[in-house]
Each structure stands twice: as structure tokens, then as C-alpha cells.
């Protein structure tokens, strides 16, 4: 089984543990249920958010100036770092601003390859896949598409789908492409 499937399984397990089965997934509730304190702060525009773990205290700090959909993705992304990358000891995961397209597969190498970086490009890709899997779970997405007779060739229907799941249209296109439901638009 590929590591990507393992990431999807971990996101699904968290959704089941937190009884989240309908769109839009309540990532703030998931954060609370996993013992994570959320903070909205005014951060530099290039910083989307960060995960800070000190002893048993877990904090996600998100940029309150960013669009609510971006904030939701950032929370899910930081939960991904917590579930996938956090080991014992204190750690800070700092995520600088990236377009959703870059978040989905090619985090800026210059940002994450610097000696002072707290994450690697691979960890960023993994956290992005976790976030997409958490916010747009495969089976929930497929069921909604079928039940609502969503036409994946219709931009309006994909826009409506993104709205229901409270994600950007670009994030929805990327997720649909990753699930091989549409041809990659990127």
C-alpha cells in the first residue's frame, strides 16, 4: 500500500474518531477534540500558520487575515503535521504562504530547503494531502457528487461543490484530479 493511501487512511480515521461525516468538515471541532488550541493572529502575509507543540500543549496559529477557506485548509494542514510528523519533544512547524496549487504538490523548494526550515518539501506535500483528505474525504465527496448529480465537466457545479465543502475552487479541482475524477487542470 502506498504512503499516500496511508495518509488518506489516517485522515479518515481522524474523521471517524471525531464523528465528522458530512460536508463541510468542522476542522475546528476536530482540533478541539484532539486537544489542539486554535489561535487566530495577524501574521505576515507569507505565513499561513504554524503548529507549535511544547510538552503536552498543542497550538495551531493561523493567519486571521487570510480567507476563511484558506484558514480551514491551514488548520487541516497543521493537523497533518501533528498526525504525520510530530514525534516526542518540542517542535515548531512554520508554513509560509503558498498558492493552493503549490500546497498540493510542489511547495517552494527555496522556502523549505533553507537550513533554518523546520519542514521538508516532502513533509509539506504529505501535510497537504492529509488536509485535502480531511476536508474533502474521498467517499464523502463521491457520495455528494452522486446524490446531487454534480456534473464534473461543469465549472459552475465544481464551484458549487467547493462552496459546500468550504474549500477554494482550486483546491477542489486539485482534489478531483488527484482522485482521477477529472483531468488535471494544472
Task: Report what the structure shows.
With 186 residues, the chain is an alpha+beta fold. It is 51% helix and 15% strand. The protein is built from nine helices and four strands; from the N terminus they run H-H-E-E-E-H-E-H-H-H-H-H-H. It has helices at residues 3-17, 27-33, 68-85, 100-103, 109-112, 121-135, 138-147, 155-165, 169-178; strands at residues 36-41, 47-54, 57-63, 91-96. A four-stranded mixed β-sheet has the order 1-3-2-4. A hairpin with a 2-residue loop joins strand 2 and strand 3. Helix 8 (155-165) crosses helix 9. It is globular, with a radius of gyration of 16 Å. The relative contact order is 0.15.
Query: What is the 3D form?
Result: globular
Uncertain runs:
97-109, 111-116
Please report which band the strand proportion falls in: under 5%, 5-15%, 15-25%, 25-35%, 35-45% or over 45%. Answer: 5-15%
State the separation between the terminal residues, measured CA to CA.
26 Å
Radius of gyration: 16 Å
Percent of residues in helical segments? 40-55%
Q: Helix-strand pattern, N to C?
A: HHEEEHEHHHHHH
How large is the count of helical segments?
9
Strand order of the largest sheet: 1-3-2-4
Mean pLDDT: 85
In total, how many beta strands?
4
In this structure, how is the largest beta sheet organized?
4 strands, mixed
Structural class given helices, strands, pairing?
A: alpha+beta
